[in-house]
Amino acid sequence: MYARNRPKNDGVDWLIDLMEAWVFVALIGVYLMLNWLKNRFFPEEMPAAQHTERIAHLIKTNPVFVVSKATCPFCRQTLNTLGGLGAKPSVLDVQQEQEGNLLQKAVMNMTGQRTVPQIFIGGKFIGGNSELNRVEPTKLQQMLKEAQDAKGEHEIQL
Ligand SMILES: N[C@@H](CCC(=O)N[C@@H](CS)C(=O)NCC(=O)O)C(=O)O
Predict the structure, then answer these.
(1) Ligand 1 center to residue 148 CA distance, Å?
(2) Contact 118, 65 (CB under 8 A)
(3) Ligand 1 centre from 68 Cα, in Å?
(4) For atom 17 of ligand 1, which residue has the closest CA?
(5) Residues 73-129: tens digit of each pLDDT
(6) Which ranges carry the Glutaredoxin domain (predicted)?
(7) Which of ligand 1's atoms lies nearest the C-alpha of 71?
(8) Fold annotation for 49-156
């Protein structure tokens, strides 16, 4: 390693190479150990079946369902857009929930989207606020009407 930058034939090339390799191995070892300690003493909380079931139930039984946070401007925009079209979304504010963090993770596991809002119309996952804004207003209105007319148990489409 780096042999071209060093005076040639100093007789300790192999020793320096060996030490460099060991430093590298030791750094990987330290990284793995710290990672293990973190997982051992601060394990990441995972959503349980009950969180996923609650979310699935809310998606299925509400014509329009939004996972939201009161402090999120995108969520406010989404609720304004939907409200402006006459929809009455059911809102799950994960900041108001005792296990909101886990509920948010449960939704995330279902949709693959990390952010809020998460919007469902007629059991179908629309996306976030940006995706909602991309739906043509007449199409959106039609989707909302169909979802409202169908009410009750929607088939979940993610
Ligand atoms: N492109 C997304 C942006 C949404 C976004 O960035 N939301 C923020 C809150 S305002 C978020 O979810 N941050 C992570 C979190 O709060 O867990 C959308 O239009 O919905």
Answers:
(1) 26
(2) no
(3) 9
(4) 115
(5) 999 999 999 999 999 999 999 999 999 999 999 999 999 999 999 999 999 999 999
(6) 64-126
(7) 10
(8) Glutaredoxin (3.40.30)
